[in-house]
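Hello support,

Our group uses your service weekly, and this is the first time we've seen a run hang past the timeout. The protein is Tunicamycin induced 1. I'm not sure whether the cause is the sequence or the server load. Input pasted verbatim:
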Amino acid sequence: MTSSILILVLFLLHSSIATALVSHNHDSKAISDLKESIVKGLGFNADDFKVTGLDPREAEVGHSVQYEFDVEIDKKVIPFKLLEDVNRWDYVDLPIFRVHHDDDNDVEPGSEKYGLVQKSEKLPVLAPFQLAGPMELWIQDADHIRLSLPHDVEAGVLKKVILADGAVVTVKGARSVSLRHPLDLPLPLNQSQNGFASGLLALADQLRHTSRTQGAPLLSLRIVGPTSLASPSSTSSNNRLKLKRLAPGLVELSSPANTKAVEALSTVDIQEEAPTLLTPTQFATLWPLASLNGSNANLLGFEKLLSSVLGPKAHKKGSFKLLKADVSAQTFVKIGFQAEKKIKEGDGISLEGFPEWRTKPETVRMHFEVLAKVDGDKVVPERVMQVNPVVVEDTVAPNVLTGNVTMSKTPVVHHPPNPFLL
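Update from on-call engineer: The timeout came from a worker crash unrelated to the input. Re-ran successfully.
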């Protein structure tokens, strides 16, 4: 009887281990697509290049802010993509990495069912920032947005908000901000002076002046997922925003002090949030971002980059077009993997320094690290870097070092006596 129970326990244990191994070896669709994208991105043939060791349980997850711009100069479109450094990497459970079986109750080992994961991923958001009119905001994916002027106001479901000249709002909980329509930007672009991005500041002032003089707002932005629009806490009681309902889902916010609200705006109490390019300042600001420091290092770097792209045109009268401007909070994944590649003549792989007595390998193993962006249910690789693995020293048998001589033929060497040895 005891032996029968023991056999049954061993059988169940073997079955559970086999199931775990099958689940572990079966990749999720996100991992499979990531492998395929890596092979294509590196320019290798799938038959000669095999990705191994891409374990999602070893993936580190972090949040960052991504800036994307498309600039048209002389009918030539030049894309820019900037990424802030990730401040913190952590091991977080991403649902897209889970393997879905036919039975919904089956979960991949290492998931929440096995008690190994204690965190789950949340959508990242931008740090609070301020926008100043005149401009219009199109609200997307925000059915329960909070409107505080400074007291909460019931405005229903907001789809569009018009900021009149002088009106300033603090936006919290937004996942992305993007330009809805292209903008024609005038030249020349002046050089930075006194530590300020004077070229971009002058450009912003021209756009703001044009928006004031024309009938409709020149600038139109799309904001995805904001949780609240509020008056800046530093705004005095005389400068509180007024709300005017124009249509269902459409309101206008105006300030009695008009343009004085922007000039009098000082540092607001959002400094404790994660620092990004959209952070508060008590120096000159870049319209329409009332919280953007005019001497911000990232802004100065972008102006320098733009000047280098424009070349001599940056100092001549003319114009260029901003086709796309998108700032978004993104989730990034960093994971290491190995790759085996078949060695072929002319593929650039050198075996110089390889011992002659060893058999030449047919494949070479390389180590990589991929930085990928989580986009919905996909993982899009942004950068693949080859890394150097830990070097393992070769061990050689003594008979190889001595020329394969037997110990009987090795001469005996007598060391001088040492009185301190027993």
